[in-house]
Amino acid sequence: MFQELFTPSVQHSLDLVGIFVFAISGALLAVRKNFDVFGIAVLAEVTALGGGLLRDLIIGAVPPAAFTDLGYFTTPLIAAALVFFLHPEVERIQGAVNAFDAAGLGLFCVTGTTKAYEYGLGLTASAALGLATAVGGGVLRDVLANEVPSLLRWDRDLYAVPAIVGASMVALCIRFDALNAVTSGIAVVTAFVLRLLAMRFHWRAPRAWHRSSAKAEGESESST
């Protein structure tokens, strides 16, 4: 099934593009945290490959693709070197980086779900691993950088939700035997567009009603 969606060369190229952009985001955070060159490389590798590694280890696809394909391993290093030498220029095109990051999110939530199902997981578990593939690297990046993971913060634009939608669409297509290159492409585009809209209009997930922090925030605002 997985091989039928795209030709191997197309799939490999898409993977490398997604890995490269995820690695850029990890390397940029390392620069902002004042990490040295080794720290920049580590954060780039973890961000780019962490989600896929987690998925492959859970489903038993070992050794993971990151260790059997040299391109997967070296692409984050290239991204890290680019940021190390040209990070001011890369920062200036942050909007483009975010757009490609959204595309990688859409791609990886779809391919992650499909691969998990191929290895015998149920639809719900496959969708969960599709989500983990898309956002796992970012979570590991934030933890290593000593930050609260972005997808858990209420003040950040929606990130996990678009991946959940894309992975769920793939699971439903599998359930009704409708998964093909067209429907998988629609799922990728849906997650991609939702992420772009979330960044454009600053969509955020709701917080708990009547939380005590809300009262404290209101008192703080009234006192200023």
Features:
single chain, mainly alpha, 10 helices, 224 residues, disordered C terminus, 0% strand
Could you explain how this protein is built, in words?
By secondary structure, the chain is mainly alpha-helical. It has one domain. Helix content is 78%, strand content 0%. The C terminus is likely disordered.
Topology (SSEs and partners):
Layout: H1 2-5, H2 8-32, H3 37-59, H4 65-68, H5 70-92, H6 94-118, H7 123-144, H8 160-175, H9 181-201, H10 212-223
The proportion of residues in beta strands is under 5%
- Element string (H = helix, E = strand): HHHHHHHHHH
Number of strands: 0
Mean pLDDT across every amino acid position: 89
InterPro entries: Gly_transporter
Organism: Streptomyces chryseus
Family: Belongs to the UPF0126 family.
Membrane topology: Multi-pass membrane protein
Quick rundown:
The protein has helices at about 1-5, 10-30, 35-60, 65-70, 70-90, 95-120, 125-145, 160-175, 180-200, 210-224.
